[in-house]
Amino acid sequence: MTLKTRAGSVVFENVTKTFGKGAVTAIDDVSFTIHPGELVTLLGPSGCGKTTTLRMIAGLEHPTAGKIMIGDKDVTHLPATDRDVSMVFQSYALFPHMSVADNVAYGLTVSGHKKNEAHDRAREGLGLVGLADYGDRLPSELSGGQQQRVAVARALVLEPEVLLLDEPLSNLDAKLRRHVRTEIRDLQQKLGLTAVYVTHDQEEALAVSDRIIVMNRSVIAQQGTPRQLYEEPASAFIADFIGDANLVQGDVRALNGDVAEVDIGGEIVNLRHRGHDKGRVEVAVRPDAVRLTDGAAGAQMSLKGHVTHATYLGSAMHYTVQCAVG
Question: Is residue 1's pLDDT more than 60?
Answer without folding.
Answer: no
